[in-house]
Amino acid sequence: MVKLPHIQERVRLLPYTTMKVGGSADYFLVVKDTESVKEACDWAANAGVSVFVLGEGSNLVVSEGPIHRLVLKMEIMGFAKLHETSTHVTWRVGAGEHWDGVVERSVKLGLTGIEAMSMIPGTMGAAPVQNAGAYGQEIADTMVELEAYDLATQQFVTLKRSECDFGYRNSTFKTDNAGRYVITHVTIKLSKVKPKRPTYESLKRWLDEHKIDDPSVEQIREGVMAVRARILPDPSVVPNSGSFFKSPIVSAAKLAEIEKKFDRVPSYRYGNEYKIAAGWIVEQCGFKGVERFGLKVWDNHALVITNPNSATYNDLRKLVEEIVTAAKEKFGLELEPEPLFLS
Ligand SMILES: Cc1cc2nc3c(=O)[nH]c(=O)nc-3n(C[C@H](O)[C@H](O)[C@H](O)COP(=O)(O)OP(=O)(O)OC[C@H]3O[C@@H](n4cnc5c(N)ncnc54)[C@H](O)[C@@H]3O)c2cc1C
């Protein structure tokens, strides 16, 4: 088999993830432009190897391996202003751009739309995959379209927002079309109109504490960063992959059933249903601060599983199973992991 230039073999993926678990991929290639994406995908198709796209590995749990794949490390960079009116600016952003760099840039220009998503780790290209979101904003609100290489048709395509089937931490890229697209560019539309005062409780409290009634985008970013720093461990210090479970979405009847048994159930309306905070569920099951198999459920936020002692993928699976079983027994709810498990 003819090898692609710059392709590496048997590359350990652990250093490329924030959870710091996982074995080696058979093939690994850094891609910096669309031509190399096409070349690499054609090579993989001919070699019968499946392709996996890696951003900054902040929503990824890698098994012990070996991972029989070509891992494409996405490093397509660049910003282009496509359009500007008196109220909006439209940018086309390379999928490899660091997400918080995109947010910082927009906030410095006084633009609204993604400021509440400050400090989310990862790349621009991964944001649509799980419809990344925080404090009342999600990428689905600002994304216009994205460009991707379609591994099924071996062609570049443009997908409109309406084609991405966005939901809560979900999209077509995690469901019907999981693994089908290599996202290369994302187009977002940001507003020049002053933001509304955020209604998210912890952020509202920070603004109240700082006596800010009518916050600017800079002040919202500052507030989000302060609140996040208080509750979330920095993955460059303590390995973790952020919120480990999605908040379950339940009917009004199921919520009422739980509220009969438990006080102050933290729930939020989600369409015609309700989200129950997954962190509260994990805490009620007694896991907050618990250390198990070398892992630790974070003291300040029970939704975050940290890996301070170099635990393995199998250790993590055991702890996850314990938590899922406990939630099922106590609440009759199925906790679903938020990160992708790669094997
Ligand atoms: C401390 C911490 C806090 C976090 N807080 C939040 C939060 O508030 N809100 C939130 O939504 N998430 C949060 N996350 C999760 C994570 O940061 C986001 O999901 C982020 O968008 C993942 O980006 P990434 O580049 O690291 O993706 P990866 O982890 O590298 O990949 C995640 C998935 O996306 C796919 N993917 C990545 N890039 C591409 C591409 N270019 N084309 C196609 N598929 C691709 C991968 O194949 C994989 O399936 C947090 C994580 C941590 C560690």
Share of helix among residues?
A: 10-25%
Summed up, the domain count is 4
The overall pLDDT, averaged over residues, is: 96
Q: Main sheet, how many strands, which sense, barrel? A: 5 strands, antiparallel
Helix count from the secondary structure assignment: 7
List descriptors.
single chain, 343 residues, alpha+beta, Uridine Diphospho-n-acetylenolpyruvylglucosamine Reductase, domain 2, Uridine Diphospho-n-acetylenolpyruvylglucosamine Reductase, domain 3, 4 domains, 5-stranded antiparallel β-sheet, 4-stranded mixed β-sheet, 7 helices, 24% helix, binds flavin-adenine dinucleotide
Overall description:
The strands form six sheets. The protein has a five-stranded antiparallel beta sheet with strand order 6-7-12-10-11. Strands 1-2-5-3 form a four-stranded mixed beta sheet, with helices on one face. Strands 13-19-18-17 form a four-stranded antiparallel beta sheet, covered by helices on one side. The longest helix is centred in the C-terminal third of the chain and has 19 residues, at 313-331. The chain has 343 residues and is α+β, with helices and mostly antiparallel strands. It has helices spanning 34-47, 99-108, 201-209, 217-231, 252-261, 278-284, 313-331, and strands spanning 8-12, 24-31, 50-54, 60-62, 67-74, 79-84, 88-94, 133-134, 137-138, 143-150, 155-160, 181-191, 240-243, 249-250, 267-270, 273-276, 291-292, 295-297, 304-306, 340-342. The protein folds into four domains: 8-74, Uridine Diphospho-n-acetylenolpyruvylglucosamine Reductase, domain 2; 79-191, Uridine Diphospho-n-acetylenolpyruvylglucosamine Reductase, domain 3; 201-231, no CATH class; 240-342, Alpha-Beta Complex (Uridine Diphospho-n-acetylenolpyruvylglucosamine Reductase, domain 1), CATH 3.90.78. Helix 3 (201-209) crosses helix 4 (217-231). The chain contains seven helices and 20 strands. Bound molecules: flavin-adenine dinucleotide. Flavin-adenine dinucleotide binds next to strand 3, strand 8, strand 12 and strand 13.
